[in-house]
């Protein structure tokens, strides 16, 4: 049985694991490693430290299906709707860009990471390990030896890398020597926006009186988006407490990218008071830097994946190889899966 390592428990990695499990049962041993403490990647949902039910989506906010992707990824949408992972967005989002006709927006009642967790649950039998930060990959015999920070290296027959492209380029060992000149140029040209996110958690019973569930903010130097997250997800928060998500603008993110949390958080909170004067004091705040937020320019002329080595197989996928949303991840996971299937 081939042993396949998927690096990254975001949407691309978890869906790759699920596709392998469903389409090639008993043929592969699937292992997923992620450097974080939980699943989701940029589809991350944070919990209030004092109330696990009070959560906030710090990365992706909602899932938008264009008519084209709604059709070609119909089975994925149907599955997530059938499992109540997705629900139609019914709340009022102010300032949203004009929508393409026929576009459908969805929210995730249990937080956006529930999409990723759904696919990991569907990968029954896969070994999913967190706090496994991959640092080196070396070829050893007919397979790969993969090293992670603070742990013992392990051997795999095939490796899939699903992290943002600059993090793929940071890997040491064989990755840097394998990439040919044209692949390297394409990977180095990939760019991402950067921004900060705050999750503000409140005591049960706190009222946040705004006439919207989420709003795009124009003309503020720091804040671009605010969501009253429970309202966005159409939940009754009276017994768990509301949560507020704040995303900064990209120019603010870029300007303060190397600053510390202690420097950046007060600046965001000061601007938040200007945008929403009288906002109550939260009981807890989660701070998140998205150095690699959304893909600005993806790998050029790319079929959704890049194969760095065929025997043994080393393949990269993720939104950097398509575009930065759920459909981009599904598209890439399907392409990575095709490569795995024909190679294994
Ligand atoms: C602020 C923000 C808002 C967004 N809004 C939306 C939205 O509204 N709708 C939408 O559809 N999309 C949105 N997106 C984009 C969406 O979140 C991404 O396209 C998607 O989550 C990418 O998934 P992925 O699996 O390809 O990568 P990731 O989610 O980045 O997963 C990669 C994983 O690899 C792990 N990793 C990295 N390096 C290593 C290593 N060396 N070893 C082990 N593990 C490693 C990371 O911890 C991570 O979990 C948003 C993103 C951000 C940041």
Automatic annotation (TrEMBL):
Q: Does the keyword section mention Transferase? A: no
Task: Tell me the leader sequence span.
Answer: 1-16
In this protein, which residues make up the domain named Amine oxidase? Answer: 104-334
UniProt keywords, alphabetically: FAD, Flavoprotein, Signal
| Any one annotated GO CC term | extracellular region
Q: Which GO terms describe its molecular function?
A: oxidoreductase activity, acting on NAD(P)H
PANTHER family assigned to the protein according to its UniProt record, in alphabetical order: RENALASE (PTHR23357:SF1)
Q: What is this protein called?
A: Amine oxidase domain-containing protein
Species of origin reads Albula goreensis
């Amino acid at each position: 049985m081939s042993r396949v390592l998927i690096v990254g428990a975001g949407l691309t990695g978890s869906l790759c694991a699920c596709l392998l499990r469903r389409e090639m049962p008993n043929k592969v041993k699937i292992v997923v490693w992620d450097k974080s403490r939980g699943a989701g990647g940029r589809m991350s949902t944070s919990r209030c430290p004092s109330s696990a039910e009070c959560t906030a989506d710090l990365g992706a906010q909602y899932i938008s299906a264009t008519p084209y992707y709604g059709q070609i990824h119909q089975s994925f949408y149907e599955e997530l709707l059938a499992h109540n992972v997705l629900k139609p967005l019914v709340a009022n989002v102010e300032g949203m860009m004009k929508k393409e006709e026929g576009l459908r927006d969805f929210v995730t009642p249990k937080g956006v990471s529930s999409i990723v967790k759904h696919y990991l649950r569907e990968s029954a039998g896969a070994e999913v390990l967190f706090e496994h930060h991959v640092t080196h990959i070396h070829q050893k015999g007919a397979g790969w030896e993969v090293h992670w920070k603070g742990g013992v290296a392990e051997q795999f027959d095939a490796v899939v890398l699903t992290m943002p492209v600059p993090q793929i380029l940071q890997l040491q060992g064989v990755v840097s020597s394998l990439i040919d000149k044209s692949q390297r140029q394409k990977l180095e040209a990939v760019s991402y926006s950067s921004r900060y996110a705050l999750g503000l958690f409140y005591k049960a019973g706190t009222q946040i009186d705004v006439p919207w569930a989420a709003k795009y903010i124009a003309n503020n130097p720091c804040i671009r988006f605010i969501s009253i997250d429970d309202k966005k997800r159409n939940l009754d928060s009276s017994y768990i407490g509301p949560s507020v998500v704040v995303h900064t603008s990209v120019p603010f993110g870029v300007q303060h990218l190397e600053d510390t949390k202690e420097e950046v958080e007060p600046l965001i909170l000061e601007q938040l008071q200007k945008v929403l004067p009288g906002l109550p004091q939260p009981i807890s705040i989660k701070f998140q830097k998205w150095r690699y937020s959304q893909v600005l320019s993806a790998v050029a002329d790319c079929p959704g994946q890049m194969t760095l080595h065929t025997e043994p197989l080393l393949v990269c996928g993720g939104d950097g190889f398509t575009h930065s949303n759920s459909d981009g991840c599904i598209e890439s996971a399907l392409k990575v899966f095709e490569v795995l299937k024909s190679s294994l």
